# Entry
Amino acid sequence: MADNKTPDPSQQFQEWVSQWERSFDEFSNRLMGTEEFSKSMNQMQTMQMEFQRQFGELMARQLATFNMPSRDDVVALGEDIRNLDRRIAQIERALGTLLHNESDAITRKPGPARTRKPPGAGKDTAEDNKS
Amino acid sequence: MSEQAQMISQMRDLMDKTLQRSMKGFEYIRSSATQVGLTPKELIYHDGTLKLYHYYPVEDEVYRIPVMIVMATTNKGYLFGLRPGQSIVEYLLNNGFDVYMVDWDPPTMAEKNLALADYTHRFLPDCVNEVQKHSGIEDINILAYCMGGVLSLIYAATHQDGPLRNLVCLTTPINQHEMGLFHLWSSEMDVDTLVDAMGVIPAEFIASSFEMLRPAQKTAGRLRLWDQMWNDDFVKSYQAFNRWGDETLPLAGQYFKDSTNELMLGNKLFKGNLMVNGDKVNLKNVTVPIMAVMAEHDHIATYGATKPLLDLVGSEDKRELVLKGGHVSLIAGPNAARRMWPAVNEWLGERSV
# Structure
């Protein structure tokens, strides 16, 4: 039939993309799936980490010279703030319990009834069970 | 239709799409960040990297037992509520569930020492308590994704007297020696040096590991986007998925070390010799009704890695659902909407009264 003979360029393009993606991924995975690749990747990562560590130490020394806080100082400050935040949350919870959740009762609307029952059981399971 | 008439019609269609592609291409370039995760919710608890949300129920009558979604630690939870019509959260709310979500923020350097035990023996029990208090209901259901599933299984196996009533594990890797390249790369990785140097494992490191599994995916995605630029729905969906993929989260160093050494290399969850917080994690101790959903073409939590779950748990009430599709499309792809969401709705609904 004539309908089947005329190609759809968009569909052809989609198929080509899918095919290219599949073959490129397969090729790459074969390449990356070797122990040699994993070892080199790990070596590069270790070198990068070591460089980053040494650079960080150097920067911290420079910042100390200029009497400026280092990243570690800022992180420590952040930890203090977070601890304070956690303590405030604990106090809020304790207060809420003491007040019998009074504030909640005022602000929160009563929730929906928890009485829902499932609709007629086993209606659309047949297709799923084929999986 | 004659062959000639069909060719003319196709040419017209091609020109129309080319024109729309050009016009909408400009719109796409000019457009701001896609709005995602818009389902109305409130934050009811947070503890550093952890956030617990409650989605506002939309039905007047809901199931008795609330459901708590546990997101994977590597990504943001809005995958479950990507955009209207492409959201399992919206679907569950419309079908009468009371939905909570455990979501994650990027851990800060101050949280670099968070261990696997902090997630399974502090964060999850705390969230369960908060859901109990907020809902006023003792029992709870958990629906967990990927590593969220692993955390939930460890929680379930070590808190047997807890309030968990039903567990749904979506593409949860159990036999992690079956995780292909991830396993190979991990075996060559110097995890201790990496964690000591970085403290928190950067998001770029996690994202690039995912991308290396499918190196052509991004380029192919862009080519498909160009071809489908005339299709508004496709473009919106692409933008939402793309944004989600770009927002991969960093991981706390100690947690990364525990996951790599104990789960990936030691494969201890699968072997049954995992110790967390002094508790032995035996999946046979998971006895609640359980549903395992896995994707046939999952390149991250492979089918081989997810398959053994139901054989290892002690539950009598078990349900397996294997779907075509990949790791992400399982949650928010077209097949998810057609098959996964209704199946979860039905399975969980029957057990949530």
